[in-house]
Amino acid sequence: MELTGQQVTEVGLIPLFPLLAFVLITLVTLRWGRLSAALSILAIFSSLVLSTRLFLSRLHGPDQVAQADFSWIDLGWASVEMGLLVDNLSATMLIMVCFIALLIQIYSFSYMETEIHHFPTQGSASLSRFYAYMSLFAFSMLGLILSTNLLQIYVFWELVGVCSFLLVGFWYFKTSATQASKKAFVVTKFADLFFLMGILMLGTKLDTFNFVAINSSVSLSAVWQQGYLPLAAVLIFCGAIGKSAQFPLQIWLPDAMEGPTPVSALIHAATMVAAGVYLVARMFPVFDVAILAGGTVAAIGALTALLAATLACVQNDVKRVLAYSTISQLGFMMAALGSGAYTAGTFHLITHAFFKALLFLGSGAVIVACHNQDMWTMGGLRKKLPMTSLAFAAGCLALAGIPPFAGFWSKDEILAGTHGPVLLVLVVAAFLTAFYVTRMFCITFLGEFRGPEHAPADLAGEVPPANLTPPVDPSWEVFTFKPDWTEERAVVAGEGLPPACLGAHMELQAAGHHEPHEVSPIMYVPLLILSLFATFLGFAGMPWDNQFHHLINNPHEPEHVFQAAMMIFSVLVALAGVAAAWSYFGRDPVAGERRLRAQLGRIWVLWQQKYYMDHLWAWLLSGTMYLGARVAAWVDDNIVDLAVNTVGQLTVWAGNELRKEQSGRIQQYLLLIVLATLVLIVGLGLVEPEFVLHPFPGLPGGKP
Amino acid sequence: MSDWPVLSLMVWAPLLGAILILASPASWVKGIQRLGVLFASLPLLLALPMYASFWQAPATGYRWVEDVLWFAPLSIHYKLGVDGLSMPMLLLSGIVCCTAAFISLQIDFRRREYFALTLTAMTGVLGVFATTDLFFMILFYELASIPMFFLVGIWGSDKSGDGKPIHRRQAAMKLLVYLQLGGGLVLIGILGLYFLSSQFSPNQAFSFDLEVLRQIPLPVEAQKILFLIFFIGFGIEAGLVPFHTWLPEGHSSAPTALSMLLAGVLLKMGGYGIVRLGFDLCPEAVAEWMPFFAAIAVVNVLYGGLCALRQTDIKVMIAYSSVSHMGMVFLGLAAMTGESRSALFGLTGAVFQMFSHGIITALLFALAGTVYHITHSRNLRQWGGLAARMPFLATLFAVGAMGSLGLPGMTGFAAELMVFLGSWPARPGLTALAICGLVITTTYLIRSLGYGFFGPLNPRLVGVRDALWWERLPFLLLALTTLAFGFYPVLLTAVTSPTLQELVNRV
């Protein structure tokens, strides 16, 4: 179905409003931070209004796909299209993204002003910069959702990636932020290589990049079962592995927590990282029919869900717990989609977006209140931040999967939709989820406030066990390519330097002693709104009356039967996780943590070291790309250029030698003339004997 | 406008400026600078309406043709004309010349000679794209390359620090030798074409005229040899591995404006020449040689990228990145062996990549040069945290780096996408390898951004300033161009499509 002209305008404006805000902020209002914030919020609000209208108009009637395409590159014989695709899935995603982005942008206003005060070199322009990036991100994400074809989704895929880069590295003077943003960008770019290859493979084989056309070509299922096309589908899934931080490329997401917390909430929890899941959902029929590809998705998803859940259990940084939890939950979604549970996967995508945004924003409030991210410096915040802790608790219950909170319904559906080993792995992951959520809540909000002074020294801090230090940038080691001026040097030489030279350490000078207090309403009201969703959204997807299933119904999805036993089992698993964590952390978190570490022993070290995945990738990177760079540069200097210079020197040498002939001695010249004549005659005789024997054919004695 | 000899005006305006500058007293600094910028901007001012008229009515064939018989015994014509292939190149040259002149205002000694030589080189590069007579093509090429020797040798800089040291005199010599080597090979090819074509033309006439030559059917064997000569000759100018070593040395020693001209325009002469002479005049040789050159193209992409990864000197890094990006041009050209749709994608991608790389690399070199001018260092390790003091330059560097690594919304992405779309059906393996080059590009560009502009500010640079308002104009022009054409690629493809379609049909 084609979109009508008016619909094209209405849908097209949804991403264009934030783009307009981005342009206006960069060109006009860069100096006035608050004005920029207002512009950006206004733009995303307008998008929300339009997407709500769109969503409401689609609530009734069948789910028809409507699209409109425009040529973006037009060569006459061939073209690359851009367009707008509207179906119930994209309409739902639009409203979710706009709504969460709006709340987060409002929240950010207060959060970023606080954060800017910590850095003496930053001012109002930083606020503008933040809102400009946020608007650019909103544009890219909305464009990604509305993509009609693989090339278009790749375009916006890259754009959200660069927004993530800009926002993770938002505090550009911090070395850690710069490193983290670089890592995020390069790792996802690495995955995108395979994504692009898969797109080209699939598109050139099927002669179309359009999702609708690709999904309908699946009816030729014999082609999809074997060989080329499943491989292409797996390559496309590689893009999702990178963007959604699935195993083995999950390494970038925890580091990306260097970005300001609203960024983590919006990009690294609710929206961008879910793009990979959205991509798989968009191409669900392909992964459903190409069994090999679908199986890969399910296996990677389940493995990621489990591995990330284990890592979340040993984190000290509240944001890192949430980061690993996000990876784990994305794994749940992938596992569902790969197993054919389309509704469950997409429903979890939506509910997770709400409660994880809530949790991140809540952690942001905690961080603002405590000036710290280490959970061991917190404790007892329930009394000091009542509003925040209420909202945060709702998010925790949703994440843990306790009925009737939103996460319970979607997670239960996932468990009901999977089977075999995938189900087994997911059950363990669900248990661990409840465990680490409870641990986080107990350490942070219950008990007594510890503060940095009373934090247990053996537990706090981010230093992993000393058996292997975290990997550094390989180029530092391989090339000795370290910058001359670093934060470490700044600490040593700190006295008398301007703050700009101190990097992250400028913050320490500004922050003094501080008693935690409740945050401003601009921050906790969005939290409370989100907590309502985290509590009640699940009722849209109750298995016996699944409104959400009717909404985004996909004909390729097999019918599910409601299993009451499964639901009871899933509740029991979640409760068991909570109970296990309570037995450790309920009374005395510090003692509980010491006990847990002692019991885990070497496994705890393994988890603290993230299964050595960072080391593995760093080692692979220096062993391939950087080694290649060393070899190539050596070859270039010592072989290619040497050859060139040798030719040059030979020329000079030959010139010098030949110059000696110009000596000015007549005898030498005569000798040369005679020699040369002889050589010429002999040479000519060898080549053309006739000419030497009878040089003048016309004269007497010559040949007739 | 059509009655005026607009092309002649465009091509000779910089040389006229050079003569005026030489005639003025050396102490008249302001006047010389203004004359230089004015006459270097004229080509752009003329190119814009021409481009607009092409955009409104795209078609094949040459426009604004000027044809004067210049030397009858050898039937050499002074003939200028623009078609859908040379129009983007002229626009590119116009933009780069104009911005390079602005950047040249940083030069602080012997300005008169500097501007005269730079303007002369500009006439040369414009002439190469505007002429349709091969004799004049060589003439203009020499006019462009000889001044570069002096510009590098006198106003260049030496590189020390990490890696191999580079001396400007040596670099100037290497640059000149390579340019002459490439030009010499092309000259041999052109002479071969000149003599051979007369044997096969209906009336045994000699001609240097492109339009005449392309009507003459040459034997396949001759085409093969000529194509090889043209490809290697122009390939040397375009940084074909292993004939690329003049690039890092030449670029890194050259004064900023010359780096921009070299990377922005002169490299493109190579790609343009391959299409113009290789593809158009020797169409039957394409299928013979391009599979081989496709492999070299991928070597260019990966090898150039890996070498760039090793560099600490920002200008050397950008120079190696040019080697890598020109590999994409070759890869796009190699798609000519495929079926017509992918051939068109590949060829358009190659042309687009030339345009894109010209703009983006000019931007990066301009930025590198300006930061060097302000901080007196080109070593990335000695920069650090510059964003704190030069937010404008840092932003623009981020734009340039993102454009160079192929961010959608900028020209590099559209170009590379078309190259891949064209190249994949025929050579999935090689294309996949070239795609892997993207992550290398990303790594070194993001790293240069991180080392140079992010992190704590180096105390040595506490007092540095940002670009002044008039210094910002060239950066903004270049950045806006790459954004506009990248956001809406039809701006370029509409102009090139008819001509390139015709070319694909020929091959």
What is this structure, in a nutshell?
Chain A has 32 helices and 4 strands.
Overview of this structure, please?
Chain A is mainly α and 704 residues long. Chain A has helices spanning 5-27, 33-58, 88-118, 124-145, 150-168, 175-206, 211-217, 221-225, 228-243, 252-255, 261-270, 275-282, 284-289, 291-312, 318-338, 342-370, 381-384, 386-400, 406-417, 420-445, 451-454, 474-479, 487-492, 506-510, 521-536, 547-551, 564-585, 589-600, 602-608, 613-659, 666-687, 689-693; strands at residues 66-74, 79-86, 541-542, 545-546. The radius of gyration of chain A is 33 Å and the shape is globular. With 507 residues, chain B is mainly α. Chain B has one domain (6-506). Chain B is globular and about 75 Å long. The model of chain B has no long low-confidence stretch (mean pLDDT 91). At the A-B interface, strand 1, helix 5, helix 6 and helix 30 of A face helix 6, helix 11, helix 13, helix 15 and helix 16 of B.
How is the largest sheet of chain A built, in terms of strand order? 1-2
Helix content of chain A: over 70%
Radius of gyration of chain A: 33 Å
Helix content of chain B: over 70%
Q: What profile does the largest beta sheet of chain B have?
A: 2 strands, antiparallel
Distance between the termini of chain A: 93 Å
Q: Main beta sheet of chain A: strand number and arrangement?
A: 2 strands, antiparallel
> In sequence order, what are the helices and strands of chain B, one letter per element?
HHEEHHHHHHHHHHHHHHHH
Q: What is the number of helical segments of chain B per DSSP (H or I, 4+ residues)? A: 18
- Classify the beta-strand content of chain B into a percent band: under 5%
Query: By helix and strand content of chain B, what is the structural category?
Result: mainly alpha
